[in-house]
Write a structure and sequence with these properties.
Distance between the termini: 48 Å
Order of helices and strands: HEEHEHEHEHHHEHHEHEH
Number of helices: 11
Structural class: alpha/beta
Largest sheet: 8 strands, mixed
Number of strands: 8
Shape: globular
């Protein structure tokens, strides 16, 4: 593992530099405008160009002092539709070690188009920023939203982002747990002074919900694919975990559930060809056992089926991604007000 991690660090660094250099201008000038030969011309909801009806600004706000603590904004142009609806704070995936907000803007543009303004956050990445630093960044982003006069918020994340927003929601909703986290993360004075908006609901898409159950094999994919996915998750966790064991490396919501008394409504979305489905199934059972509100949706897809450009997906994959978007919008709008949205054919 030592040699693998060393070589992996070099590969991750190179990939990150390339993405940071190429993706923001490509998204802004081509993909979101519907003229990309790489990403295609339409969004998950079938709209072309992907940015239609949405004003998107990269690096619009800074919510913290670190260079990567910035927010991209996706603002619904129909202000009547967006009136009195809470914003969404979105945390991108990338195994805590790669990708950025810009990489996934096409996948959250439909959320803004439905009337929910989106703050899409960048955050420090491992291995330079290990747990709990990215979680602290989510807390800072939430506090920034509150400082802007927003009293309520919806949380959304995919993969590593789903992991981050889920744990952050548990911390914000349970003050003693937040104080313990802040103390052990050596940010007690800062975090305990933050004021947060009320979290109305959390949607996690193929999030990492525990550190163990994903090691099981799935019979919906080949033995080779199981091993590859197990290796990738193990690799990412080794780069993300804190070597000093801060907060006992309780880096998933399942790690803190025994200290959680209340949670906002949760929605869990995953594919049954993704080994992370084990962690989502397990969390669903644990939340139901504790009489907490949880919705669960499982699709016949692999990891990233929601975040990938629709042009990269099969006909079936496009349908599944769109169905997941429908459920996410219905869930968010149900917990925002009395209206319910559906993506039209």
């Amino acid at each position: 593992w030592s040699i693998t991690l060393l070589n992996g660090r070099v590969a991750v660094y190179g990939a990150r530099r390339f993405l940071d250099w190429s993706v923001p201008p490509h998204q802004q000038n081509f993909h979101l405008q519907g003229t990309s030969r790489v990403g295609g011309s339409f969004a998950t909801d079938g709209v072309t160009p992907p940015a239609r009806g949405v004003t998107i600004k990269l690096f619009a706000h800074r919510y913290g002092l670190q260079p990567s603590e910035t927010l991209d904004t996706l603002i619904c142009n129909d202000r009547h539709l967006a009136q009195r609806k809470p914003p969404v704070l979105y945390a991108h995936g990338g195994a805590w070690i790669a990708a950025s907000s810009a990489c996934l803007l096409h996948s959250v543009a439909p959320v803004a188009r439905a009337g929910l303004d989106v703050f899409s956050m960048d955050y420090p990445l491992a291995p330079a920023a290990r747990f709990p630093e990215p979680v602290v960044s989510v807390l800072r982003a939430l506090a920034w939203i509150r400082s802007e006069g927003r009293e309520e918020v919806l949380l959304m994340g995919d993969s590593a982002g789903g992991n981050l927003v889920s744990l952050a929601a548990a911390l914000v909703a349970n003050r003693p747990l937040l104080e313990e986290f802040a103390r052990e993360a050596s940010v007690r004075e800062e975090v305990c002074a933050l004021r947060f908006p009320k979290i109305l609901a959390v949607s996690s898409i193929y999030g990492v919900m525990d550190q163990v159950s994903w090691r099981r094999d799935l019979d919906t994919i080949s033995a080779a694919e199981n091993k590859i996915m197990h290796f990738c998750i193990d690799f990412a966790l080794r780069l993300y975990r804190c070597p000093n064991g801060r907060f006992q490396n309780k880096l998933t919501i399942s790690d803190v559930l025994d200290d959680v008394k209340v949670l906002p409504p949760f929605q869990l979305i995953c594919g049954n060809k993704d080994v992370l489905v084990w962690t989502n199934r397990q969390l669903r059972l644990e939340l139901e056992k504790r009489n907490m509100i949880v919705e669960y949706f499982e699709y016949d897809e692999r990891h990233c089926f929601f975040g990938l450009p629709p042009a990269w997906l099969s006909k079936e994959g496009k349908a599944e991604s769109r169905a997941a978007l429908n459920e996410l919008l219905r869930f968010f709008l149900t917990h925002s007000d009395s209206s319910v949205a559906e993506v039209k054919d």
